[in-house]
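In response to reviewer comment 3 from the previous cycle, which asked for concrete evidence that the modeling workflow produces usable outputs, we include below a single protein chain processed end to end. The sequence was submitted unchanged, and the resulting structure tokens are shown without manual editing.
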Amino acid sequence: MRNSVVINQRGTTLIEVLVAIVVLSVGLLGMALLQVTSVQSNYSAYYRSQVTILASDLADRMRANRTAALGSAYVFDFPTSSSAHSVSGTQAQKDKAEWLNALALALPEGTGRVEKSGTLVTISVRWNDNRGRIKAADDADTGIETFVYRTEI
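The workflow returned the following structure tokens.
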């Protein structure tokens, strides 16, 4: 006959379940943080896509009205972000107003600037990217992003 030794293992299964719950909780928390980071990155990518489209739009408008564009009718500095620019006047003034209105509507604090040197045009777009920012670099970081688009007209 065999001698059977009874080992007391009461509660062992409960401890294993608790450890499994802790491990699962840590994994789910990591997935939630990953989701938050993903959403923030998607906002930033969306803003950059909008900026690229809008900068290209203004360049196309300038090419369509090349005479005025070569005469510096489109050159301006960063105005205050507003969607209330009056769409009137010359074609160049209408183009600028429509573009600045589109920037203000599509981007948080969106505004732009156009510089020209001969036929080389530099279109700069500035917006507040705090919503898409994953982590601030330092306390002085304002979250303002600037996109620069250079082209010839």
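The longest strand covers residues 120-128. We consider this sufficient to address the reviewer's concern, and the full set will be provided in the supplementary archive.
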